[in-house]
Design goal:
The structure is a homodimer. By secondary structure, chain A is α/β, with parallel strands linked by helices. In chain A, about 40% of the residues lie in helices and about 15% in strands. In chain A, the strands form 4 sheets. A 7-stranded mixed sheet of chain A has the order 1-4-5-15-10-11-14, sandwiched between helices. A 4-stranded parallel sheet of chain A has the order 8-7-6-9, with helices on both faces. A two-stranded antiparallel sheet of chain A has the order 2-3. In chain A, helix 5 crosses helix 6. The longest helix of chain A is centred in the middle third of the chain and has 21 residues. The first copy, chain A, is globular, with a radius of gyration of 20 Å. At the A-B interface, helix 3, helix 6, helix 8, helix 15 and helix 17 of A face helix 3, helix 6, helix 8, helix 15 and helix 17 of B.
Chain lengths: ~450, ~450
């Protein structure tokens, strides 16, 4: 082993501003529509759910938005996150590519989700919200919101997609340690939950979906003015807050005296992708440095690679505003793959727009390819990556192999969004040969795409 | 929140040398004896088990021992570890004390154990050893050795104490991801394992103990010249390697322009305690700065607070050399407390000697007090501490409360040896009120102490 493998920054290098890519896009991406009138949502219509400042950020065209000191104070516990050079993995692959990974697993809850949980709770607390509800897929977001709520003394209620809840009992312990109340979704606590349960055979526990859990969390928040709703991904502000990842990486590449040719991250809602890529895309859009960006989704939930760029709801019941995005349809319930954070029917409007504009290339990877990539990464680099993060790694390995075959000495930057410490049952199943890939058929896909809302242009 | 909370160091600040406290002690602590002859062990007698350089380090009186570049290269993945100021915890306790914690949970395997696993594998590989065996209690050490073996391409076979193996199935997944073979101890693979199993009722799986698992690992290593044995704690070299913790903390306190009045860590075998305290005790022994050091053991395994300072074996079967140490007797099988890493009958001869000399103060804490301390720490500081680490935290909270009651503004430094990501089942049991404390009776203790070997002075 030789040469530097870790690029650390000082607390002083924690970004002072988030970056808003909207300021640099050639045109403004489509804004959300009211789900009933199909007219653009007014700020007044949206305040029932989200904090005013978050809505302002969603609508902002400012290039940079200042990070409040109280948020940076909490960021200081775990930021800047390290950038590593994966020399062992490079050697194992025999690639001339330089592989770098930015690792978000050292956050208090083990993933990048805390980056947006902290400001969301801060702004809500600042306007008197005493409780936040949310959904969670893999459990990463629920844990992050629980941590952030504990930091600002706000109550937290989490609706956790049943399929993942059953796989990871101990994330519940952690959320509860931070003071949160955790439900398996669908619950009997909400109208939408009871409705979903009524369609199941008696005695069985429905697997749930992120879309359904969103509906539950939104219903509870709408019922009480002191309760707000927090969203872990897809919304503009979640991507905005995650840009601390890309901003730090830019500084770290300057330290390394290098620059990435290719950026890679997984996409569930799209916040890790946006957070990593947007600061680098700024450099591209403003003519400074070119870069390729690759967004990796699971073949089990192929919104970008097989879905449509269309208006759709964020939740299963159609309670949220309509968004223009890549989607497989809001009624789609993905197979219970272990990357629970990627089991979402749509992709953030901002990431979708960037894909539609050709700024980001989508690819899909199968679950088994991803676990194999995760194990190779664990053995060589000593980090067990979260099932979500293995999607980025699988695509990164493909790129590294392409570089080997073409003799190209590119620099690859992959985001490892979190660790797998609560997902080892999934790895155990994979090691035991119990994980197989299910292909989504054209027929199945067509059924869900046919349920997209018909939105008249205005 | 205000004021700095994290003290980071650069890769350049990773220590270049380990510190050997033997050089600064007023006299040389008693050396190990041959278990049959009761004469001091010669180097030749010991080479069948450990790498030559490790034995040389155990016998060395040099003050500083250089860390090989190849070891520092692996350290660079996770060192220096951060020092945090626990401002939220201070506020919660209303204490004038300044509480600092050094956090080892960011290592690849989530605890400080990697600090000694890496050099042990490096030295063994350098002399042609192709496989290492070991025991593990909580699973931390086995995972650390598995990681280190993967870095130097050495096979790894782990004997895991049954009680902990059953509690933490997923650490096995992680060890296997790093390429190790993992057994539940006692096994049917060794003579001592079969003997232990024979005393149990048919069909039941014995809980095992660290002492018994040591016997198994040693038996396998002795049977093959290409196989070595690695020890996660108690041996002099394990404490030596852990001094990177204390050396870094000294530099970090200089950055913080502060100095600890009290050092606190848990004690299983004693390596985290030695690693944290010895560099500070050097400053004390050489007349630079005074410091108190507190060693915290579980009430379920009270070697320092209720045991004897006596000659005893390191394993249950009496295969290891005799060591002068605090012990509750090598045949003692502690209750199946969740801090599996602290279920060991003895304490490192070096730490024992320091306790005997009054350089380190021992205290014992009950399991329920420790879990309560762990949950308070999780809620305030956002880190779920390993059950072992909660012992240090419980004693640290006692000290902070003493400071509140006496109005003393001391600086406390507690070592958080690792995270609890594989121990959340234990926290779940505690939250559900299912964990109680069992007191070890005087009668039980006397039985085990009466089985100490009779060693004639020479």
């Amino acid at each position: 082993m030789s040469g530097q493998i870790k690029y650390l920054l000082d607390e002083r290098d924690i970004p002072t501003h988030w970056y808003n890519i909207v300021a640099d896009l050639p045109e403004r991406p489509p804004r959300p529509l009211n789900p009933r009138t199909h007219q653009p949502m007014s700020a007044a219509e949206m305040t029932s759910l989200s904090a005013t400042e978050l809505l302002r950020q969603d609508g902002s065209t400012e290039r940079f938005i200042a990070i409040p000191d109280q948020v940076r104070d909490v960021y200081r516990r775990f930021r800047p996150s390290p950038l590593y050079r994966a020399r062992n993995l490079e050697r194992e692959l025999g690639t001339p590519a330089r592989i770098y990974y930015k690792y978000e697993g050292f956050s208090p809850t083990g993933s990048h989700k805390v980056n947006t949980a902290v400001p969301q709770v801060f702004y809500n607390a600042g306007q008197g919200i005493r409780k936040l509800t949310t959904e969670t897929g893999a459990g990463q977001w629920g844990t992050a919101l629980a941590f952030a709520c504990a930091q600002f003394d706000v109550d937290c209620e989490v609706f956790w997609v049943g399929a993942s809840y059953d796989q990871k009992p101990y994330r519940k312990t952690m959320m509860e340690a931070f003071g949160a109340t955790v439900h398996r979704s669908p619950t009997t606590r909400t109208d939408v939950g009871r409705k979903a349960r009524a369609t199941e055979p008696p005695g069985s526990e429905p697997l749930g979906s992120i879309g359904l859990a969103v509906s539950e969390a939104v219903e509870v928040a709408l019922a009480d003015p002191g309760t707000g709703y927090a969203l872990g991904s897809t919304a503009g502000h979640t991507l905005l807050h995650q840009t601390v990842i890309g901003e730090e990486a830019l500084k770290q590449f300057a330290l390394a005296e290098d620059y990435p040719d290719v950026l890679i991250s997984c996409v569930g809602g799209g916040s890790s992708m946006g957070g990593l890529a947007f600061p680098f895309l700024r450099e591209k859009l403003t003519g400074n440095r070119d870069v390729r960006a690759i967004a990796v989704e699971p073949t089990a939930c192929p919104a970008m690679t097989r879905g449509k760029y269309a208006w759709d709801y964020g939740d299963m019941e159609g309670l949220t505003p309509l968004m223009k995005m890549y989607t497989v349809g809001h009624r789609f319930v993905p197979a219970a793959i272990h990357a629970g954070g990627l089991r979402y029917h749509g992709v953030s409007p901002l990431v979708s727009y960037a894909v539609h504009q050709g700024l980001i290339e989508p690819v899909a990877k199968s679950q088994t390819d991803c676990f194999a990539a995760g194990l190779l990464f664990a053995r060589t680099e000593g980090i067990m990556p979260a099932p979500e993060a293995t999607h980025g790694l699988a695509a990164c390995i493909d790129e590294a192999i392409r570089c080997r075959e073409t003799g190209s000495d590119e620099a690859l930057l992959v985001l490892v969004t979190g660790h797998a410490h609560f997902d080892l049952a999934a790895y155990a199943s994979f090691q035991a040969g119990q994980i197989t890939d299910e292909e989504l058929s054209e027929e199945q896909l067509e059924v869900f795409l046919s349920q997209l809302p018909v939105v008249s242009p205005h």
